[in-house]
Structure of Aldo/keto reductase:
Amino acid sequence: MPAKIPSVRLPGNVQIPALGLGTWLLNGEKCASAVKASLELGYTHIDTAEMYNNQVEIGNAIEGFDRKRLFLVSKAWSNHMHFNDLINACEKTLGELGTDYLDLYLIHWPNPKVPIAETLKAMQQLKNEGKIRAFGLSNFTIPEIEQALQTSKEIATNQVEMHPLFRQGKLLEYCNSKNIPITAYSPIARGKVFQNKTILKIAERHGKSPAQISLKWLLQKGTIVIPKASSKEHLEQNLGIFSWKLTAEEIQEIDSIREEVRLVNPGKYVRRIAGFFLT
Ligand SMILES: NC(=O)c1ccc[n+]([C@@H]2O[C@H](COP(=O)([O-])OP(=O)(O)OC[C@H]3O[C@@H](n4cnc5c(N)ncnc54)[C@H](OP(=O)(O)O)[C@@H]3O)[C@@H](O)[C@H]2O)c1
């Protein structure tokens, strides 16, 4: 029997499954088989992006599954932030995925060279036309979200790096105050949490894996988690995070971890965007 995954309500009354499958660096046959295996196990939420170059494979993998039960998320890259470019990027993504609509469409990275109001107006048009059910942000800082909120009150999520070694305390507090749930990417820090003593101790206490402790801490913070997994063992393990809880003391212990690891360096990305991708 496929697992039942609880949902988080996004602004605009769209329900997003709290656990999704991340697909960055999943390509070709490996991508198609991981996505298919995940759907058979009960995942419905798949996270992709035009930049991941795997939307055709995902489109093939979801064929035969009931579209209405799926939750497909994609992201537009930074060189598609002008109004018409975003509309065209979305059409291309829909074609590659073989679907009429996305459940959620995100701005992958802020682009300081295009007014956010222009991009959000294109998002709103896509929503009005039924091509996306909701839209949101990724990698936005507090001042950048403030700016986005001046144009739209319909921002559904901010997808950012978050895990026990990069806790995003201030951003989480701010997003909570604006009712914008965070989607946590790299939620197990690509395995870096497995060496942390606090995580290992709590994992042993619960008879769970360090990956499960990391994901559970994020869920109990109210975030949505999108671990990437390609093996059936990992896919199954990451589903086993719903029928038990960390105590308030354990959450506090993880909140107090001093080690800090940031995997995605925004400086590097901003430079790449500014240097190579902006038109
Ligand atoms: N918006 C953005 O800018 C952005 C940036 C980065 C990532 N993302 C999204 O977030 C997703 C997840 O982030 P990520 O891929 O960077 O890192 P991650 O999910 O923290 O880590 C993925 C790695 O952990 C392994 N793994 C998964 N479950 C495991 C388990 N239970 N036990 C042990 N190892 C396990 C995977 O191995 P196997 O593959 O071998 O199973 C893979 O090597 C991405 O795929 C992407 O969709 C978004």
